[in-house]
């Protein structure tokens, strides 16, 4: 009986999370059991945003939407940390930074820059293959539309995508 309980517990802890929601809920449950107030409060605040999105959508939102909610929460916390540092409140800034670091563990890994460049180059080549090259801004818009049609937004940093697309377009047409 002890062995069965141990195996059940071990297999449960070794199983990869099925989606971000279940992973968040499992971590909140674990943090509450271990009386880790910092982790449970941080994760419950994100879960409350997820539940609000569920109510707005009248259904459970998928993992990419949850990833974007977590990404926005990370951005809010890093901005708050910088404002706290500007106000000489390093204690509050440290707390916000710790929360942002904790939330980063729930995001899926981002696409590498090499993969991003490869995908963007293929898209740019396919859009400019006919010889009729649109203006730079129109081309950037077409590249973004095609890129995000192929790649999930939660797997890339949009700022990096924009920067790399502009660089690759300027290299091709300069």
TrEMBL record:
Signal sequence, renumbered to the chain: none
Protein name: Altered inheritance of mitochondria protein 41
Assigned protein family: Belongs to the AIM41 family.
Keywords recorded for this protein, A-Z: Mitochondrion
Classification lineage: Eukaryota, Fungi, Dikarya, Basidiomycota, Agaricomycotina
GO function term, MF aspect, one: carbon-nitrogen ligase activity, with glutamine as amido-N-donor
Main subcellular location of this protein, as a coarse class: mitochondrion
Source taxon at top rank: Eukaryota
Cellular-component GO terms for this entry: mitochondrion
Subcellular location: Mitochondrion
One Pfam entry name: YqeY
Ranges in a coiled coil: none
């Amino acid at each position: 009986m002890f062995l069965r309980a141990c195996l059940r517990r071990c297999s449960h802890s070794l199983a990869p999370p099925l989606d971000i929601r279940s992973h968040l809920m499992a971590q909140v449950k674990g943090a509450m059991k271990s009386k880790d107030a910092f982790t449970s409060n941080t994760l419950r605040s994100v879960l409350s945003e997820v539940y609000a999105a569920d109510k707005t959508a009248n259904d459970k939102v998928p993992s990419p939407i949850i990833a974007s909610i977590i990404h926005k929460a990370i951005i809010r916390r890093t901005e708050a940390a910088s404002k706290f540092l500007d106000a000489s409140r390093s204690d509050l800034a440290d707390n916000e930074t710790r929360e942002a670091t904790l939330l980063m563990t729930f995001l899926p890994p981002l696409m590498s820059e090499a993969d991003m460049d490869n995908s963007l180059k293929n898209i740019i080549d396919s859009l400019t293959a006919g010889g009729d090259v649109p203006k730079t801004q129109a081309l950037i818009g077409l590249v973004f539309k095609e890129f995000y049609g192929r790649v999930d937004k939660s797997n890339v940093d949009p700022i990096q995508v924009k920067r790399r697309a502009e660089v690759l377009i300027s290299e091709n047409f300069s």
